[in-house]
Write a structure and sequence with these properties.
8 helices, 3',5'-cyclic-GMP phosphodiesterase activity, RibonucZ/Hydroxyglut_hydro, 7-stranded mixed beta sheet, 20% helix, Pdiesterase2, binds zinc ion, alpha/beta, single chain, cAMP phosphodiesterases class-II-domain-containing protein, 3',5'-cyclic-AMP phosphodiesterase activity, globular
């Protein structure tokens, strides 16, 4: 029995305006009309309308919904960061969305970025911080991330369910982790990962926003997420959505070899996790990191890793569209195929799937 239903409204990586990061979810035992969480808001009603024209029974085999009707039941958006490929539709549709006021859950700096858009300049101001501002379609709601240090992990293991999850919907809570996205002239730029938990069963899945490999980051953070997830895989946490924008031929920090798998393997050692404990991964020392952030690198035998991630399903997201037709297949299939080969070579046992617009996923 699965826990969540998901519909992929958009899974692309930014340059295709018809297919931007956007995923609708609900508890499996509830109806879509009971309330929906939108993970990101890159694509929205327009994309869903196109999807439902091609597949009218995608959401429900007995009832046909319109895109407008579905979005009227969205209760909140969870936003990993404020880049346009993750928020453009929720901005454009703010004045036309039906249904109740909707919360925008995100880190405070991301909500600050949204304020610069809803400023009566780039777009009319349709969001506010006040619960009583019913005239504003969106309600800014900070999602506070807390680091998962070794000490807090011990507390977590001793105390059971995390108190750091925040209830965002009936039976659904979210824990937020901050990620490195990269840096620009203003300094470091951050993104988020979410652990989304079905409270009655305690089952969770992980959803990553754009993420810079730990091997390139001054202060590694993705490891915190793996430390959190390690003991839960695959029984409590069996599904991960992670960004992998580029195939490895592209010489960029976001490339395949140092993106999704790199969160299990450093670019220098490519050492995947040991005994299904992602958090037990050995991290190569890196310039600029403090001693407290480093652990000694320790070789992990391939035989020890065999089947280490069996039962885990990883969806590859955010692949950059191949407008030059450099590949004979859709780019998400190319990249997922390359990741699949990588984990097959390592014998990890994890299932790799390309997230695709219009897909319905049971988690
Ligand atoms: Zn981004």
């Amino acid at each position: 029995m699965h826990t969540f239903d998901m519909v992929v409204v958009g899974s692309g990586g930014g340059c295709d305006e018809t297919n931007l990061s956007s995923y609708l979810i609900k508890p499996a035992t509830a109806a879509w009309t009971d309330g929906i969480i939108s993970l990101e808001g890159g694509s929205g009603q327009g994309a869903l309308q196109q999807i439902l024209q091609r597949n009218p029974k995608l959401l429900d085999c007995r009832k046909r919904y319109t895109a407008s009707e579905i979005y009227s039941h969205v209760q909140c958006f969870l936003i990993t960061h404020g880049h346009l490929d993750h928020v453009s539709s929720l901005v454009l549709s703010a004045g036309s969305l039906k249904g109740p006021r909707k919360r925008l859950y995100a880190a405070k700096d991301t909500l600050g970025d949204m304020e610069t858009i809803f400023s009566d300049r780039i777009w009319p101001n349709l969001a506010s911080w006040k619960e009583s501002d019913d005239a504003y379609k969106y309600l800014y709601t900070p999602c506070v991330a807390t680091p998962c240090s070794t000490a807090s992990l011990l507390t977590l293991l001793q105390s059971g369910p995390s108190p750091k999850h925040k209830r965002v919907h009936t039976d659904v809570s979210v824990r937020s982790f901050r990620l490195n996205h990269g840096s620009n002239d203003s300094g470091a730029y951050e993104s988020s990962a979410f652990s989304i938990r079905h409270d009655p069963t305690g089952r969770e899945f992980l959803f990553f926003g754009d993420v810079e490999p730990d091997s390139l980051a001054r202060h590694p953070r993705t490891l915190d997420v793996w430390r959190y997830a390690a003991s839960k895989i695959p029984t409590t946490l069996s599904t991960i959505f992670i960004e992998c924008s580029w195939p490895p031929a592209v010489p960029t920090s976001s490339c395949l070899a140092t993106s999704a798998p790199s969160t299990w393997s450093t670019s220098s050692s490519r050492s995947p996790p040991k005994s299904s404990k992602l958090g037990e991964r050995r991290v190569a020392p890196r310039t600029g990191a403090s001693a407290s952030q480093e652990e000694e690198e320790e070789p992990i035998e391939r035989e020890d890793r065999a089947g280490a991630l069996k039962g885990l399903r990883v969806y590859i997201t955010h692949c950059k569209a191949d407008f030059d037709a450099a590949h004979d297949r859709p780019i998400h299939e190319v990249i997922a195929g390359q990741v699949r080969q990588l984990v097959k070579d390592e014998g990890l046992g994890v299932e790799i799937i390309a997230a695709e617009q219009g897909m319905r996923i049971e988690i």
